[in-house]
Amino acid sequence: MSHVITSVKVEIAAPAAFVWDVLTDFANYPQWNPYTVAVATTLEIGTPIDLTLPNPDGSDGTFVNREWVRVVDPPHHLRYDTADEMPGIFAVRDQWLTELGPDRCAYHTTDAISGRYADQVMELTGAWVQAGFDSVADALKARAEALHHAHLS
């Protein structure tokens, strides 16, 4: 069974290249990203990307989810997946920026989850992932627009 979680699509009043720089500025994630509070990666194809996430049950603390970088296509597409990190589960995360003009773009993210335990993963964490993805989209919009406005001032 395969499932796809898709975030809300947000329009951002900033150029796609500017938003890409915010999206891939992992050192500053703790300042704005409510779902992925830290990232460690070189962003080179085939290398690990360690994502620090809050606990799904809302309790204090975080956990690290290791995935593998597959596509880095600035300023349009970032993809990573779980490879064989979790037996019975395979997840592919795509983050998309679509240019809407010289000073506007849209962002959304998806996670395609497949494998023997995909149904159970969706049942246990699907709503949490959906809420997290939506919060990232909204937070990226707010962060990029604020930085872009400050940059123009």
Automatic annotation (TrEMBL):
Pfam families assigned: Polyketide_cyc2 (PF10604)
CDD domains reported for this sequence: SRPBCC_4
Organism: Actinophytocola algeriensis
Source species taxonomy: Bacteria, Bacillati, Actinomycetota, Actinomycetes, Pseudonocardiales
Gene3D superfamilies named among the record's database cross-references: 3.30.530.20
This protein's name: Uncharacterized protein YndB with AHSA1/START domain
InterPro entries in the cross-refs: Polyketide_cyclase/dehydratase, START-like_dom_sf
